Amino acid sequence: MTKNLDSNGLQSIADNYDLFYIDIWGVVHNGIKLHEQAIIVLKELLKKNKAFVLLTNAPRPNKTVRNFLKKMGMDQELRDHVFTSGEAALKYLKKYFLSKKFYHIGPPRDFDLFNSFENNKCEDITESEFLLCTGLFDDHDKDLIYYKKLFDIHINKKMICTNPDLIVDRGDKRELCAGSVAMVFEKMGGEVIYFGKPHPEVYNQSIDNNNKKILAIGDNLNTDIKGANLLNYDSLLVSNGIHKNEIKDKGIEKVSKEYETIINFIQSDLKW
After folding, report:
1. Could you say which DSSP state residue 2 is in?
2. Which domain-ending residue is among 141, 175, 194?
């Protein structure tokens, strides 16, 4: 049974945990502005000397996301807790794929992910040894059929996906993410190596999480909550995120069952 924390707040359970994994997009901000109540939560966790990671499926290095949050007005003492799926992927790429030619699928704003090996980037997919997917091309950001045609004769190449999210809400606008492209590739028979929630690597790289009682907080059942379930962490779903309409129409218990997830706690928005 999922417990609602809207009345008592996160403070009512915070002392039960040593470490908090907190999603950024949809929990701390909406892509346009910070959520003030969520910032209060982060500051209260600092006061209590509680460890937390702002864990995001952003396909960019930590420093890029920290700069983005700085522009939004987030204090450095909070920004320092950011860890991205892009950072986790970057370590892997440098170790195993550094000398291999790749074809990048995603917008130009993601180029900083591979600055250190950009000479290996191919303009022609036929010349590549693997595919690096960080998102969708700006001129094909709604058309998944385009990617099916693009992959047709390249399905034998491995794809590295740096953001398993299928969708994200930017303000009131819903957008497709890299995970949607990777899903197309997988359904065609391709092999995808994922970095980001719900996959364990990003959690384990971000901080020493051994022998800790952990709460994972997020708005995405497929990534934040499934990741918590896979790793036996407790979970808190922020219900005013991407599943808002589903929860309103069906109720939390039915939605949880449909996504095959266990949700320990729920809040409309993250509040102390």
Report:
1. P
2. 194
